[in-house]
UniProtKB/TrEMBL annotation:
Organism: Gossypium raimondii (Peruvian cotton)
EC class (word): lyase
Lineage of the organism: Eukaryota, Viridiplantae, Streptophyta, Embryophyta, Tracheophyta
Protein name: UDP-glucuronate decarboxylase
GO MF terms, alphabetically ordered: identical protein binding; protein heterodimerization activity; UDP-D-apiose synthase activity; UDP-glucuronate decarboxylase activity
Any Pfam family: Epimerase
Length: 386
């Protein structure tokens, strides 16, 4: 492999990365990228390894030995500090991060996103190790514009909705809106990491992903996850399409999101890993401001794309409205709009997303169809009573 150069033309030394949550959606794509394109070593920590099994076996893989899986729960495992010490860089991805959990399992959500991350920050700080911590765009909460009257012309002014790392406030709902337990826990861990940087010199980077989507995201209920489980919207809608059910639009599907292709976003993370001088001390929005849709528009586009990749015609009524109370239960609330400001990531790392929403849905739904269509068909065949 030719020597890799950083953005300032210096050769990049191979490093060892302790990746916590490596077996999840983002972790699996990051491991794949690191194995295929870099000489770095990965200590992959997680409670599950299904999504990275293809990188761990067989022993004949070209990167064999460069990735080692450690099955552990960071809540209670004394091996954690030793593994952080063995690495040059720690990347923390571990979290409960599905909205259906925030209001129904708020304690688990707060523990997972704040308390369980504390020892990771402490061990990095005490051992002078660099930390890349995964936060979320949800720390911005609602936009300022959402509090303006519906007909106010200021709602169209980007100053009232574009989310900027260094100036936008974090606006959450009341405590009984437990949806915000996740965002609030993530905000507090960001503040703690920032303070460790300011007071104790911790080298940190905070990543705020804006709806990264792609293959291997979450699970399909009843196939590779619990039948009653509620994953994030990409997997919910994929599940509906695979089962030929209408896609459920929560509260009319009016909320807006910007979706970025996981493979574009992983490029940004690799730039952070390999350019510490440009990434340390920064908080980065990572999203695609050009891919904005309402959830209703997402449902319509996914329906069209799925018909194309599966060759099956769409339903006559492809969507159905549900209330958030019915879908998520008491205490749900929503972010109205999420447009990332790209100034800081552009300036520091020169990164820009490339993939359009249509293209990323086409490759993702091709994967969903190939991976799940047969299993769903089999699971839907009713056993004949004898
Ligand atoms: N996917 C996105 O668009 C997105 C958006 C915003 C923020 N994030 C953040 O990025 C990170 C990764 O997200 P993801 O989409 O890959 O989620 P994911 O659920 O697929 O991955 C998280 C992984 O962490 C592991 N994990 C959780 N608790 C653990 C523990 N106590 N010990 C060991 N492993 C544990 C899980 O088993 C899972 O494999 C999370 O911190 C999430 O909050 C993701
Ligand atoms: O991905 C992100 O950047 C962050 O946002 C997500 O939050 P959210 O976008 O609200 O979660 P989704 O489940 O992807 O839902 C998106 C929207 O679709 C709606 N939805 C979801 C599922 C469904 O079947 N129907 C439906 O209308 C939700 O109400 C919401 O408005 C999650 O909190 C995290 O993964 C992450 O931190």
């Amino acid at each position: 492999m030719a020597t890799r150069m950083d953005l300032d033309g210096r050769p990049i030394k191979p490093m060892t990365i302790c990746m916590i949550g490596a077996g999840g959606f983002i972790g699996s794509h990051l491991c794949e990228k690191l194995m295929a394109e870099t000489p770095h070593k990965v200590l992959a920590l997680d409670v599950y390894s299904d999504k990275i099994k293809h990188l761990l076996e067989p022993d004949s893989l070209p990167w064999a030995g460069r990735i080692v899986f450690h099955r552990l729960n960071i809540k209670h495992d004394s091996r954690l500090e030793g593994l952080i010490k063995m690495a040059d860089l720690t990347i923390n991805l571990a979290a409960i991060c599905t909205p259906a959990d925030y209001n129904t399992r708020p304690l688990d959500t707060i523990y997972s996103n704040f308390i369980d991350a504390l020892p990771v920050v402490k061990y990095c700080s005490e051992n002078n190790k660099r930390l890349i911590h995964f936060s979320t765009c949800e720390v911005y909460g609602k936009t300022i514009g959402s509090f303006l009257p519906k007909d106010s012309p200021l709602r169209k002014d980007p100053a009232y909705y574009v989310l900027k790392e260094d100036t936008s406030p974090c606006i959450f709902g009341s405590i009984e809106k437990q949806r915000w337990s996740y965002a609030c826990a993530k905000q507090l861990i960001e503040r703690l990491i920032y303070a460790e940087g300011a007071e104790n010199g911790l080298d940190f980077t905070i990543v705020r992903p804006f709806n990264w989507i792609g293959p291997r995201m979450d699970f399909i209920p009843g196939i590779d996850g619990p039948s009653e489980g509620v994953p994030r919207v990409l997997a919910c809608f994929s599940n509906n399409l695979l089962r030929r059910e209408p896609l459920k639009l929560v509260d009319g599907g009016e909320s807006q999101r910007t979706f970025v292709y996981i493979k574009d976003a992983i490029e940004a993370v690799l730039l952070m890993i390999e350019n510490p001088d440009r990434a340390n001390g920064h908080i980065f929005n990572v999203g695609n401001p050009n891919n904005e849709v309402t959830v209703r528009q997402l449902a319509e586009m996914m329906t069209k794309v799925y018909a194309k990749v599966s060759g099956e015609p769409s339903l006559e009524s492809p969507t159905i409205d549900v209330s958030s109370k019915e879908f998520y239960g008491e205490g749900y609330d929503d972010s109205d709009k999420r447009i990332p400001d790209m100034t800081i990531i552009n300036r520091q790392l020169g990164w820009n997303p490339k993939t359009t929403l249509w293209d990323l849905l086409e490759s993702t739904l091709t994967y969903q169809h190939r991976t799940y269509a047969e299993a769903i068909k089999k699971s839907m065949v009713k056993p004949i009573a004898s």
